[in-house]
Design brief:
The structure is a single chain. By secondary structure, the chain is of the alpha+beta class. The chain has one domain. It is built from seven helices and 14 strands. It has a nine-stranded mixed sheet with strand order 5-4-3-7-6-1-2-12-13. A five-stranded antiparallel sheet has the order 8-9-10-11-14, with no helix packed on it. The longest helix is centred in the first third of the chain and has 20 residues. It is globular. This is Taspase, threonine aspartase, 1.
Length: about 350
């Protein structure tokens, strides 16, 4: 995941991140943070910056989002994505969309179109579209299509072939419940937990607006048409500005499937950004600050995070790992930090 603070934070998935690819994981998080902060410095609001971060993450072949996403049971790519604007509380999402390189662009366009108000004849604009309808709507609104075969990578194709062979072998041996469970676990191990490697970002701009977004290729070998938690309202991401009853603005993005009660292990991750305004001393200078907390937590073996503020020269990245000897899904890691942003009124 990625955290971006005019300030920004990002997450490149909760799952397993090998030491051999640690440099690549961190590099994509750095690029995503930098992309978001560049947009913020240019005057963009939080929702535009969080979209820019997600596009960078979706374009990386090392993430399970956009390019290089997990293949479904039929060998196709279907992605989920959602975005939320804390200022307006508007939300946009797509589920099981194929043939679009950057699903978050469709989710963001749905959000912006909803903010424009009702359509002709008083119709309510959509905020969540799935499947072919989502693809056609995206193309009609100027988002270019991309053939699914061009979105698959060498890694995702080889993982699909391995998983398919294992499934075929397992079905010959046993079609019972226990074997189904073994197939699911082997899928996670073969993909390096790519099944869970969702990406997300949270951002606060200098006006104090927050935004969050998340994007995922979903579970490996999932049934075509399956929509995962990344697309669901209040589940994949959340953003809400401060109000009279709450002094804090909050943005959240999640990874994994922590809401599947039937699973033996609860595997997932989350990044959280919380901020509030504070008066700097001396007050005569009319300088206000934004106190920002950025936290991340995961029950998976590892999670790669990055974060950056507009005052930083470069992003900070970190691969958070569970302590040695602990069992993923039965143990929790929590880390984070605090920074202060100064704003001249």
């Amino acid at each position: 995941m990625i955290g971006v603070l005019s300030n920004a934070g990002v997450m490149e998935g909760a799952g397993y991140h090998s030491e051999s690819k640690a440099k690549e994981y961190k590099h994509v998080c750095k690029r995503a943070c930098q992309r978001a902060v560049d947009r913020l410095k240019a005057g963009a609001l939080a929702v535009e910056a969080v979209t820019a971060a997600l596009v960078e993450l979706e374009d990386s072949p090392f993430t399970n989002a956009g390019m290089g996403s997990n293949l479904n049971l039929s060998g196709g790519i279907e992605c989920d994505a959602s975005i939320m604007d804390g200022k307006s509380l508007h939300y946009g999402a797509v589920g099981a969309i194929s043939g679009i390189k950057n699903p978050v662009l469709v989710a963001n366009r749905l959000l912006s179109e909803a903010q424009r108000g009702k359509l002709s004849a008083g119709r309510i604009p959509p905020c969540f579209l799935v499947g072919r309808g989502a693809h056609d709507w995206a193309v009609s609104h100027g988002i270019p299509p991309c053939p699914s075969e061009k979105m698959a990578t060498k890694f995702s194709l080889s993982a699909y072939k391995r998983n398919k062979r294992k499934m075929e072998l397992a079905e010959k041996l046993d079609t019972g419940h226990n074997q189904t469970k073994k197939r699911r676990q082997s899928c996670e191990n073969e993909n390096g937990s790519g099944c869970l490697d969702t990406v997300g970002a949270v951002v606060v701009d200098l006006e104090g607006n927050v935004a969050a977004a998340v994007s995922s290729g979903g579970l490996a070998m999932k049934h075509p048409g399956r929509v995962g938690q990344a697309a669901h309202y209040g589940c994949g991401c959340w953003a809400e500005n401060t109000c009279n009853m709450n002094p804090y603005s909050t943005a959240v993005s999640t990874s994994g499937s922590p809401f599947l009660a039937s699973e033996d292990r609860v595997l997932g991750g989350v990044i959280v950004l919380r901020c509030c305004r504070c008066v700097e001393a001396p007050p005569s200078q009319n300088i206000q600050g934004i106190l920002v907390e950025f936290l991340w937590s995961h029950t998976t073996e590892s999670m790669c995070v990055g974060y950056m503020s507009a005052q930083d020269s470069k992003a900070k990245t970190h691969i958070s790992r569970l302590p040695p000897g602990t069992v993923p899904g039965q143990c929790l890691a929590i880390e984070g930090g605090v920074c202060r942003l100064s704003v001249v009124e």
